[in-house]
Amino acid sequence: MKFTKLKEISDISKRLSFALVFIVAMMGFNLQSAQAALAGKGLIHPINHFPTWFSDTNGIALQLCLDGDGVTGLCAFDPVDPANPTSVATGFGAEAFWWLGSATLNLAGTNRATVVLALEAAYGAGDPAPNDQFAFGRVRIRIDVPVAGEYKVWHPFLNEAEGCPPEVFNATAGKRAINVTRDTGGAAPFETMLNGEVGPFLVWDPAIAPTAPAGYVGDPNILHEVIGGHCGINYVRIEAPGGVNLDGAGQNFVQTSLFSIAGKLYDEANTPPGIEPVRTTYFRTSNNSAPFVTTGRINSWVKAPVTATVRISGLPQANGAMAFDGINTFYKRAALNSTNALNVPDHATITATSVNGMETVQDVKIIDQVNITLATWTKATGAIRVVAFSSDKANPATGAVVPELTLHIGSKSWVMSQSGAFGRYEITLSGPDDAYLIPPARVTVTSSKGGSDSEGIAD
Question: Are 303 and 330 in contact (CB under 8 A)?
Fold first, then answer.
């Protein structure tokens, strides 16, 4: 039974690319206004590269539900494709769910209606692939319509800000004549769905036996009453035009309070700690007279679970524990002496260890910091002048390999000249080949040491 349900939920998302899902969600096809029903998300999981958890405004945090075979147990997900390396690594196929709820109503004859509500992990191209992850919230309504007319639908995720009025459909008769799917989501950093329709999560009503299995918000194999709906609507109700025998017993309405619910509570103790690099940059400078000496430092910021222990290694000096800022970021400064500052490493290793010993290791790039301080356009001549600074202010006379900065405008690029103090670079584009009669909105400067910056042309 659950396999059939998962197939029904999945049919469209397997055929849509991320771009189309996003367009459907964001270009006005939604009948309901977006609501901030989800409160937050966790760090990126080090293995599957989706958010470790999503939380709602009731304080419930759910991780991807991946227990069992995805068909018969407490979780619903596409089974692993043994021929797909990404699927094997992540532990599921084309899609999985942080949360899934659905209700089915039998109508007169062979007609029926389904409402599916979900927070889903999937891939833009359909099959699991690296760097193709996206997440979305889904509201799907499908109704077999016996008689043409106006149909009203109440469900738990109506617009609470407007008092939860029903969705209204003017439908012709036919199977799935009402067939609406609204997906709100996107790729990393996976924040779009926080303002979608899905949430707070519907969970089994604890006042009605049986209670949800420990560690879960429900069992999708058992229909059960729920709590958490907007405006206290913890049911699905459909009203047909007066006189329509919708339920087969002469009533023009049907209603159910029974849902199939799947979701696993976030289990931090048994989840490898995520690491999200914020920035790892270096600074170095040289004195202006012989004997020339260069010194420097490396600053690193990463996000990790607040309960984790985080260390940095691979630096020529000052490896060790990173300090926690009391919010969600760990920091380390490593001073570089005159020997080590001449050869700054291009990467370091971050290790996060959970309270029960689970460990995640991730490399981070060490780059210079680039800042554009001037970007101007002269209307009379079309000249563009750009000044940028690198945090690498070493004197080449010390033997240090200094960065090369490059200006980019559209598909064109120009190497900038070091000008003035070490670390300062400047370029002026002018003349018949390089002048711009119409200025670009923005310019970008990149460094051979990895740093970059973009800035709008000054008005």
Answer: yes
Selection from 236, 56, 235, 231 nearest residue 160 by Cα: 231
Determine how β-strand 405-409 pairs with β-strand 442-447.
antiparallel
Residue range 4-38, pLDDT digits in tens: 445 554 443 443 333 333 333 333 333 444 455 79
Residues contacting 109, CB < 8 A, separation 6+: 146, 248
Residues with Cβ within 8 Å of 244's Cβ and at least 6 positions away in sequence, in order, are 146, 147, 149, 252
Question: Which amino acid type is present at position 94?
Answer: A
51's tokens: 């958010």
Residue 458: count other Cβ atoms within 10 Å of its Cβ. Answer: 10
- What three-state secondary structure class fits 191? coil
> What are the tokens at 2?
């659950």
- pLDDT 10s digits, 128-171: 999 999 999 999 999 999 999 999 999 999 999 999 999 999 99
- pTM summary value: 0.84
Where do we find the tokens 């939860």?
A: 164
CA atoms within 13 Å, Cβ hemisphere of 188:
14
CB within 8 A of 75, min separation 6: which ones?
Answer: 65, 66, 67, 68, 96, 97, 220, 262, 264
What domains can you pick out in the chain, each with its CATH number? 2-266 (no CATH), 276-367 (2.60.40), 369-456 (2.60.40)
Q: Residues 284-320: pLDDT tens digits?
A: 999 877 888 999 999 999 999 999 999 999 999 999 9
The kind and range of the H/E element at 4 are helix 2-15
